[in-house]
């Protein structure tokens, strides 16, 4: 059985004080939860302080992005080693906003994956198609390319440190959500890709999260799908009550 993961991507929200308040509320309310991996990804400026707040909790910290270089003349960038130093266990890479708004390529994302793993961090590796690509029957081709190129030179052993997040671009921040069936179809396809690239063991042990307007009122149906192992949550992770309801998803939508 794959242990579910619920991760909150706070994007460009929350001052240090606001981040500490939210982290404190989540820490208090999740103290007894040990069957789900909980991750939050605040902005860079809050990471070290939030890490201190989370000591003794069941919540892990993630960076929202990184630069693959360990150091150097890269003004404004943050390296995997610096994220680890700030208290992170995970880092998100390949998010659609990085791909779409900042022009990040599969090759560059792959550099980040390899650099993060080398630095001892786990990776939340995002993939997903645009609406144009889905409607043009290119979804599977796009996902295959993103998985193949993004995980290039990543070994089967290293895959134990990689979580895949399927995020249809057309469902991020739009209020639209892939149907339960659409999510399951995409996740099953990605698991099949991993089976072909690696092995049955790797495919069955790798967690695949769904991201794209996950909310308290749709999480149960999504999590009931066989190949949906968790959620990467955006806006709903900014409110403690909403995020906690998602963390406490019902494993059956009728339960």
UniProtKB/TrEMBL annotation:
- According to its UniProt record, which residues of this chain constitute the active site? 95, 167
The record's principal subcellular location, in a coarse class, is cytoplasm
Tell me the Gene Ontology biological-process terms attached to this UniProt entry.
gluconeogenesis; glyceraldehyde-3-phosphate biosynthetic process; glycerol catabolic process; glycolytic process
Q: Which reaction does it catalyse?
A: D-glyceraldehyde 3-phosphate = dihydroxyacetone phosphate
Q: In which pathway does it act?
A: Carbohydrate degradation; glycolysis; D-glyceraldehyde 3-phosphate from glycerone phosphate: step 1/1; Carbohydrate biosynthesis; gluconeogenesis
Q: Which domain of life is it from?
A: Bacteria
Q: Whom does it interact with, and what assembly results?
A: Homodimer.
Supply the InterPro entries for this chain: Aldolase_TIM, TIM_sf, TrioseP_Isoase_bac/euk, Triosephosphate_isomerase, Triosephosphate_isomerase_AS
Does the keyword field hold Lipid biosynthesis? Answer: no
Gene that this polypeptide is encoded by:
tpiA
Q: In the record, what terms sit under GO molecular function?
A: triose-phosphate isomerase activity
| Entry keyword set | Cytoplasm, Gluconeogenesis, Glycolysis, Isomerase
Alphabetized Gene3D superfamilies for the sequence: Aldolase class I
Keyword hit for Iron: no
Q: Which organism is it from?
A: Trichloromonas acetexigens
Compartments (UniProt record) = Cytoplasm
Q: What is this protein called?
A: Triosephosphate isomerase
This molecule's function is given as: Involved in the gluconeogenesis. Catalyzes stereospecifically the conversion of dihydroxyacetone phosphate (DHAP) to D-glyceraldehyde-3-phosphate (G3P).
Gene Ontology cellular component? cytosol
User: Mind telling me which CDD domains this protein's record contains?
Assistant: TIM
Pfam families from the entry? TIM (PF00121)
Q: What is its EC number?
A: 5.3.1.1
